Structures are given as structure tokens and as C-alpha cells.
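Hi support team,

I'm opening this ticket because the web form for multi-chain structure prediction keeps timing out on my end. I have pasted the exact lines I submitted so you can reproduce it. The total is 271 residues across two entries, so I didn't expect it to be a heavy job. Is there a limit I'm missing, or should I split the entries? Thanks in advance, R.K.
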Amino acid sequence: MTQLDISERLDGERVVLVIAGPVNSYTFGEFQQRLERAMAKGQVVIEMEKVSTLSSAGIGVIMAALDDAEAAGKKLFILRPSEIARLALESTGFMERFPIIQNLKELA
Amino acid sequence: MIHVESRRSATGELSPAEAVPGSRPPSSPARAAEATISIEVEREGIFAFEYFIDSLDFTSESEGAKLKLAGSEIFDNLVKHASPVAGGMATVRATRRRGVLYLFFAFKSPSFREYAARCFDYEPIFDNRARRWRGMGLRMTRNLSSDLRFRAGTLLDRVIIRF
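Hello R.K., no limit was hit. The queue was backed up. Here is the completed structure from your submission:
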């Protein structure tokens, strides 16, 4: 899959940003724009079940968004990361920084 | 059009220029599998690299994930720090020798020697202009592999990742 596909849906007042495809050095800019736009609306959950790769650039975007959310008193969650996305997050050595959930009900 | 050359051999010997220092010498012949691709060292080349890894028929899904993540970071660094490379291309080879997976990048860049000398000095840092954290790629590659080496050579520069 070479196409990054990003869509949004609402879960109550939360914005669920659904990411499918590669978040790599070529596509991370689009991911960053959509994530920043979603963050302006409120609490965001990034669904990463169909992410086919996740580069350090994409992770750098997520880490910046986590900082911004914390500074604004909001929360940002990563929902069901794919195996490769989870491996990428683990490989940073900062796994404890990423709030991962498997189900939106965990936020209820 | 992406062309991937793949082959299997009965020997599996690494040539002296490619063998990773510190690795154990092979004790017996074993089957080896490998695939090679030439990729343009530019941003769009990352898709060819990802396709190349996805097309390997001698790696498991989890091995492929490691190769893709670690190799992508190396490829990105070549684009950012080693461009332009001679001929605009890098050769990437994935191989399994006696059960051990390797990923090799070969190219020639006038700036690689300087980059290789300082690339491990960086710590993750927030880039205000880019509005994101940077400097995590080699850290990820190191954590995903058992050995990572940069070799600036007279005729050829190489990055060797052993998994």
C-alpha cells in the first residue's frame, strides 16, 4: 500500500483519526496536518490498526501532539496500533510515552 | 517500474567487504537467500524500498517489519545527509546467511564520510520549525538490529545492518 488514507469520525465529543497505509518520510506531512487540525477540535484518538509502516518522522509528529495535548490539558490516545506501528513505537525506547488503547470503551 | 533481482545460492558466504566485523565465521555451508534493488536516492524512493521489503520471500512478517522500519530510517538519512550520491542511485540488498538477516546499502557520496563520523552523536530534539521531534531514526534502527555499521570507502560507501 503506497497511499496514505486518513479519515475522521466522531465518537461522542472525541475525534477519531483513522490512519491507513504508510506513515513514512514522504507522507508524514499530510498526517501532521490532519492531526493538528483534529487536535484543534478537541480530544483525539489516532486509530492505527491499518498503518503499514511508521517512520521516525511520523512518531516525531505523534510525540509533538502528545506534548501539545498535555500543555492544553487534553489527552491523545493511540487506538489499536498495527504490529509494525507498535514495533516502531517500541523501537524508540519511549514506549511508556505513548498512551495505547485497544478499545474506545477504555476511555468511558 | 521497480526491478527486484532475487536469487538463492548454496554457499551463503559473505564477501570480505560485506562481512560484519565481530560476527562469527560460518561453521558449515548453508542455503542463502537474497534480493537486490537499485533505488533512486530521493524522497519518493521510500516507496520502492517499502515495496522491495514487502516482496521478500525469505522473511517472516515480523522480520520484514524490522527490515522495513530499520532500513527506511537509513534510506531517509541517505536522502537527507548523503545526497547527491553518484549516479543518483543506491543499491540495497537483503540477505539471509546462515539464519542471520542483513540489509546492505551501497552508494558513493562525497558527504557520507563526514556524516558517518557524527551521525551517532545526535539525541532526539524538538524542531520548532518542523513542529515535531527529530533525531530518533538511528536510535530506532539500532534498537531494531543487533549491529549497525557505517563504512565510508574509497570506491563505495556502505551501511550494514545485521538483525
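A quick check on our side: Chain A has one domain: 5-103. Let us know if the file doesn't open in your viewer.
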